[in-house]
Write a structure and sequence with these properties.
Blueprint: H1 3-24, E1 28-33, H2 35-39, H3 43-55, E2 59-64, H4 67-76, E3 83-84, E4 87-88, H5 92-113, E5 129-131, E6 135-139, E7 142-143, E8 146-147, E9 152-157, H6 159-167, E10 171-174, E11 177-179, E12 185-187, H7 190-200, E13 205-210, E14 215-216, E15 222-223, E16 225-227, H8 228-237, H9 242-245, H10 248-256, E17 261-266, H11 272-278, E18 285-288, E19 293-297, H12 303-315, H13 324-330, E20 334-339, E21 342-351, E22 357-365, H14 374-388, E23 393-398, H15 402-406, E24 411-413, H16 420-429, E25 434-439
Parallel strand pairs: 1-2, 1-13, 2-10, 5-10, 13-17, 16-18, 22-23
Antiparallel strand pairs: 3-4, 6-9, 7-8, 11-12, 14-15, 17-18, 19-20, 20-21, 21-22, 23-25, 24-25
The structure holds ligand 1C4.
Ligand 1C4 binds at residues 313, 318-320, 360-365, 370-376, 396-401, 403-404, 431, 433.
Keywords: Acyltransferase, Amino-acid biosynthesis, Arginine biosynthesis, Cytoplasm, Transferase
EC number: 2.3.1.1
Subcellular location: Cytoplasm
Length: 440
């Protein structure tokens, strides 16, 4: 690769990442890390990336798993680990192993996350990582006649303390273990702890970092985005990904209780965490309560995004010039297409007094998101809007994109076929655009 193309790809990547970094600054993300990932050699690189998140102003809570460490300890002492309904049954002997394992994971994590950030102005400075007795727990009790022993569930989480620590730029480490008010210790499930912490902190994201890259469909392809409903149906159809399937109840609960995104990523691909957080396509599977792409009414706050998208096209003569004032006064005519909270397109529907025709105008999809069907979605949206406003015909004017409209059912038309008010503007702007009509 030449120096020039390396620079180009760096600049492109940086431009793509910048809005996501800006968006996540001061927001909280909860990282739930499987113990298999922590035990792997590749963890050091991931730990460096986690440290970097803190330095970008993102508030990070790490919840760790412990399963692999417990299994290894049990194997060493040739003991078996009974379970019921997918939860470990914890007797007194097992509890000793759980505590031992939790201590070991915690120290491994503390060591990995204490490494200074190399190649950065912060080299030599260390993350401030704090762990503590954040969770009060209670026993799970007897289920179907099976006494679950010291296997517990969450009673309360000290969110005030966690928030104070985050406010003081500390990274918070939460173990899947809790204590009762009578001083007993209970073993908890990592995914339940991670989900409840994310819900209570109103986290922006809950990221499960596993050995597997994400959800794989029947053809072996990575599924990038799923809504909560799609996820529930999908897991029915994909029984083979057992480890990941265990995370589904916590995933759905977190989404239902207001966590905006739950993400599953694989730890063994270099940079997977950054790629998931800071690029449009991500590296794993992302879950949202509702569909990822949606089109909504524009508001004044969208004007900077609209101007960012339309200005280069105005300069090329593709779109008519629209000033900030014009957009302020006509914002009600505009709709915005968002993917994962980022604006990627806009369109306007203009009405004309006394006419049953509407103009589809200012249709743009940002260059980095074109040819993904967003243009088509915006067109469908405007058609729907026009129909519900009882309009009979949609028209548009175009200098460069006529073919795109023709392929979608628009017919070539003459100026005389559009409302008089628009004909007058046409003569004033002197653009000589072509006219297209779509009967509704
Ligand atoms: N001509 C023909 N086909 C095109 C095309 C073009 N200019 N641009 C993309 N396509 C094809 C692609 O090749 C692809 O084809 P394929 O692979 O499916 O065979 C297909 O379209 C992709 O479809 P999509 O649904 O994924 O489309 P998106 O890329 O998401 O969006 C846009 C399509 C045209 C919206 C997008 O390419 C874009 O933003 N282009 C730049 C802006 C643009 O041309 N907008 C249309 C303006 S006409 C103006 C105004 O200001 O109100 C001017 C008024 C006047 O007086 O002149 C409008 C309406 O805004 N009018």
């Amino acid at each position: 690769m030449t120096e020039h193309t390396e620079l180009d790809s760096f600049v492109r990547a940086f431009r793509e990442a910048a809005p996501y970094i800006h968006y996540l600054r001061d927001k909280t993300i909860v990282l739930a890390i499987s113990s298999h990932v922590i035990a792997a050699e590749t963890f050091q690189a991931l730990a460096q990336d986690i440290s970097l998140l803190g330095s970008l102003g993102i508030k990070v809570v790490v919840v760790h798993g412990v399963r692999k460490y417990i299994n290894d300890l049990m194997q060493e002492s040739h003991a078996t680990l009974p379970s019921y309904q997918g939860r470990r049954i914890t007797n007194e002997k097992t509890l000793v192993k759980v505590k031992q394992a939790c201590g070991e994971v915690r120290f491994d994590l503390e060591a990995a996350l204490s490494v200074g950030l190399s190649n950065s102005p912060q080299y030599g400075t260390r993350n401030r990582l704090v762990s503590g007795n954040f969770i009060s727990a209670k026993p799970l009790g007897v289920i179907d006649g099976v006494d679950m022993g010291y296997t517990g569930t969450i009673r309360r989480i000290d969110f005030t303390l966690i928030k104070q620590l985050l406010q003081h730029n500390c990274m918070v480490l939460v173990s899947p273990i809790g204590h009762s008010l009578s001083g007993k210790t209970f073993s908890l499930s990592m995914d339940e702890v991670a989900a409840e912490v994310a819900i209570g902190l109103r986290a922006e994201k809950l990221v499960f970092i596993n050995e597997e890259a994400g959800i794989i469909d029947a053809d072996g392809a990575l599924v990038r985005n799923l809504s909560a409903n799609e996820a529930a149906a999908f897991f029915e159809a994909v029984p083979q990904q057992k480890a990941i399937k265990r995370l589904l109840p916590s995933t759905l609960r977190a989404l239902q209780q207001g966590v905006k995104r739950v993400q599953y990523i694989g730890a063994h691909t270099e940079g997977s965490l950054f790629s998931e957080l800071f690029t449009k396509n991500g590296s794993g599977t992302s879950f949202a309560q509702h569909a990822f792409v949606h089109i909504r009414q524009a508001i004044s706050d969208d004007i900077p995004d609209i101007m960012r998208m339309i200005q280069p096209l105005e300069d090329q003569g593709v779109l008519v010039h629209r000033s900030h004032d014009y957009l302020e006064n006509h914002i009600d005519e505009f709709s915005i297409l968002e993917h994962d909270e980022q604006v990627y397109g806009c369109v306007a529907l203009k009405r004309f007094q006394g006419s049953n025709m509407g103009e589809l105008a200012c249709l743009v999809v940002s260059p980095d998101a074109q040819e993904g069907g967003y243009g088509e979605l915006l067109l469908e949206h405007v058609q729907k809007q026009a129909r519900s406003a009882k309009l009979k015909t949609l028209f548009c004017l175009s200098t460069h994109t006529g073919e795109w409209f023709s392929e979608r059912g628009f017919q070539d038309a003459t100026l005389a076929q559009i409302p008089l008010e628009r004909q007058r503007q046409y003569h004033q702007d002197g653009r000589g655009s072509h006219v297209y009509l779509l009967p509704l």
